[in-house]
Amino acid sequence: MSIRPAISTSAATPTREGAGVHLHRAFGFNEPEAHDPFLLFDDFRNEHPAAYAGGFPWHPHRGIETITYVLNGSVDHSDSLGNTGTLGAGDVQWMTAGSGIMHQEMPNGNSKGQMHGFQLWANLPGSLKMTTPRYQDVDAKEIPEIIDDDGSVVRIITGEFWGKQGPVDGIAADPLYLDISIPAGRKKVLKVDTYRNTFAYIFEGAGKFADASTPHGVLLEKEVMGEELNIRDLSGNRTLVRFGTGDEIVVKAGPQGMRFLLVAGSPIQEPVAWHGPIVMNTRAELQQAFSDLRNNQFIKPQDH
Fold first, then answer.
1. If we measure between CA atoms, which residue out of 12, 11, 9, 27 comes closest to residue 229?
2. Between β-strands 115-123 and 64-72, what pairing exists: parallel, antiparallel or unpaired?
């Protein structure tokens, strides 16, 4: 058994997308190999409807999968194939864009105007970039939730964890996607496949991660990469943690407890040609995609 060291931490960056939606981006649009097979991760959290009401009007996707996880409020969605629906609190949508799809996503706040969700982009290997588009809409009640003896709670969106299997399947990156809550002062050892790239995104509370030399029986007060890793999110800050290799992640929650997403996926290790919502392997494929858009040939005939 080996502990994965936390090799870097960074704060998500404020940005705007769609029709002026205010959000925070943890990573995206540079160094795609750093998080392979994942390309981009956004946290759209706001209590002011004017900051998200414009939503994400019609836009294309090709060559990737988009994963939307809603915590507060809802997201209405529709696409060029005639699919429509609403994601409520706790719901997940895993969209395989494949050969191409046009869609829109319009967020709505809860009764207090609060809106909170995440969107993750996962790359597709070259062999699947032109596959038939596919949706997996998952209701909150379908997502397994495990409560450990110490009060820790894990929601399993995809992958296997603690003997339970998440409802999303057939994903190229073979991902693990968990929503983990740990009570104040508790320490957890979390198993992760050695060969998957892994990151954590802290969005409530605070905590510390062990480095590779910290024995399991020692409180997590070690220094990581030359400085103590003390992730603080008490005022709503958003922190991304990247891990090195190993098969265990050790974390201790701070005095307010801690909630974070833990995401892992198998690297694709292929060239990336990327512009906006379209990700291919070569510049020629990218140029073809935009030519298809201009010539109204972006949406391919569907197999039935």
1. 9
2. antiparallel
User: Which is it for the CA torsion 30, 35, 38, 44, positive or negative?
Assistant: negative
- For 107, residues 6+ apart whose C-beta sits below 8 A from its C-beta are 21, 44, 52, 53, 55, 73, 74, 75, 115, 117
Listed in sequence order, the DSSP H helices in the chain are 283-294
Q: State both tokens at 102.
A: 């046009």
Task: Choose among 99, 96, 97, 118: nearest CA to 107.
Answer: 118
Q: Encoding tokens for residue 192?
A: 């992760």
- Asked whether 3 and 250 are in contact (CB, 8 A), the reply is yes
Question: d(Cα 94, Cα 143) in Å, to the nearest integer?
Answer: 13
Q: Which residue has the tokens 């290799």?
A: 245
Closest CA to 102 of 129, 80, 83: 80
What digits encode the pLDDT tens for the residues 199-215?
A: 999 999 988 887 644 44
CA dist list (Å): 189 to 26, 192, 252: 24, 10, 9
**pTM given for the model:** 0.89
* Band (236; pLDDT cuts 50, 70, 90): very low
Question: Is the confidence at residue 153, as pLDDT, over 70?
Answer: yes
Number of C-beta neighbours around residue 211 at 10 A: 19
User: What pLDDT digit, counting tens, does each position of 76-124 carry?
Assistant: 998 888 888 899 999 999 999 999 999 999 999 999 999 999 999 999 9
